[in-house]
Amino acid sequence: MSLDIIELTRARESRAAIEKLYIEMRHIFNSGSYSPSTISGRVLLEALHTLRPEIYGSIDDMEKVELNGLVYVMERLPKGIEQCRFLRLISDEGYSHSGFEVIIPAKRRRNCYKVDNDLMLVEVTRGRSEIYDILTHLTFMYNEAEKIKSHAFDKNGNKTKEWEQLEKIVEGNVKLTEHNRDLAFSHLSTLLGRTFEQTKQAFFRFEDTAPQNSGLFRIVYWLGKVAHAAEFENQPIQITFTPTLRDRIGHHIHGEQWATNIKKHLIEHKLLDRPIHIISANMHSVMNSLCALSALKEDFPDHKRAEDLAQELSKPNNQSLNNRVRQYAEQCGMLYLNDNSGTNISVQVFDTTLLDLSNLPAELKVNKEHIKKEKPVIIVMDYAFGEQAYETMDELLKPYKNANLLVKSISVMGKAGILHGGKGDLMIPSAHVFEGTADNYPLKNEFTKDDFKGSGLNVYEGAMISVLGTSLQNRDVLAYFRNSSWRAVGLEMEGAHYQKAIQAGSLIRKNVSSDITLRYAYYASDNPLLTGGTLSSGSLGTVGVKPTYLITTKILNKILNPK
Question: Per the confidence metrics, is the pTM higher than 0.90?
C-alpha cells in the first residue's frame, strides 16, 4: 500500500472519529447526563484515541501522562475541578448572586462555582462549541487520570510507595522544600511515567503559566484519588446538564441581549444612523492604534509606530500605561461596553469625529474630509467562541425597532492554526469550509496577499477550515486539508459561523446591504503540523504583536482612508 493511500485512510478514520465525537456529544447533551465509565463516556474516549489530536500529544500512550496537554487543559478548566466527581454544566441561572466564589479559568472566560468538595458548576453561555470544548477536555483529563491511577495503585487497589509519599506532601504531613523537592520529583515522575527532568519542567510550567491552579502535585493527587474512588469505592464521576441549559442552547438568548445593549448605546449617543464598521478583534489593538500615541506622547516621544508602543504596553509591568490609554480613549469618546449578557464579549464603540486625527501612528493614513463628511462609527467586538460567532453577528445585524443598521464593512482579525509557515505568519482566506459538514462559504475578501507585501511576514492565501474544536485536530486531517484540492492554509473556529450570519443578513434577510465590504485576516498562533508547534507548547508571547498591529493598521486604513 502506497504512502499516499495510507495517509488518506488515516485522514478518513480521523474525520470519522471527529464525526463520532460530534454525534455522541450531541446525544449526551440531549440525554442530560453521562459518566466516563458508561457507554457514552467510552465512545468519547475511543474516538479520541482513534483521533489522537496533536494538542493532546501522547494521549494514546497509556504508560505516560501527557504533560503539555495537561497544562493546556487545566488552563481552560476551573481550579479544583480535578477534585470534583460531580460536574454540572449550567446556564446563567443566578449563581452570580450567590455566596459561592466565582472561579474563572486562565484561558477561558467562563464563570464556575465550586459548591463543595465534590460538586463543580460550569456556566455555559457561548453555545454548543463551548460544550464540545469542555467535554473534550474532560475526556482527556479522565484518560490521564486512569494512567496516574494505574501507577499509584496495584490491581487490588493498594497504594504504591510513590503514592504514599505524594499523599503525605499534598495532605501537609511533609512540607515541600528545596532540599526534599528533588526526592518528591522522583516519586512524582514514577506516577507520571515520565523522566525526572520532564516532571521538573512540568512542575515549573504549571507554576509559571497557571499559578492560580492547584499545582502539579495536587492535580496529580486528586486525579488519581478520584479515579481510584470511581473504580474501587463505587463513587463514579457524573457530568450533568441542567434543564435550563438544555432549553436555552440554540435560542440566541445571550446574543440577543448583547446586541440589544449595543444598539441602545448607539441610540443614546445618536450613532445608530451613522455608517458603521464592525471589527471582530481583541480589546487593545484598535484602541492603542488610535489613542496610545496621544496618551503616551510624553512617556515615549520617539515612538511613532503603533507596533513600537504596543511592545511597551505588552510588558507585564506596564499595566498603569494601559490604564492611561483606556482613560484617554474614553475621554475622546470611546464607549466601553462591559458585557453583562453572559456572552463574555466586551465591546468598544469609537465615534471617529471625536478622535485626535492629528496625532496618529505613522503607518495610519486618514482622509479627514471623508471622516468629516461620512462620520463613520467603529464597533470593536471581542473574540467570539465557535458557534457563538453566528449567534452574535446574526443578532447584531438585525434591525432595531424597525431601523436597519448602516453597516458598511465587517472586518475579522483572528488567531488561527497555520498549515504552512510558523507562528506570527499571516493567512488571508478566500473561503471558509465548515469541517464535518457540506457547508462552504466562498467570500469576496477585500484583503489580498498584496496588502501585506513587504511586511517581513510570510503570507498565505486560500481556504480556511472552521473546525469543531482546535483540540480535535490531528496531523492526518490537517495534512489532508492542506495537500488535497481543498488547499487549505489554516484552521480556526469562527469564520464559517461569521460568514453564515453575514450571508443570511445581507443576501437573504436584507438586514444590511448586499455589497457590504468584508475583510478577513488571521495570524498564526501555532502550527499543529509541526512537532512542538501546537497551542499546548506555550503561548505566542510577543511574537503576536507585529501581526496583530499590522492587520489592525490595514483594517483602520481601509476605514479611515478609503480609496
Answer: no
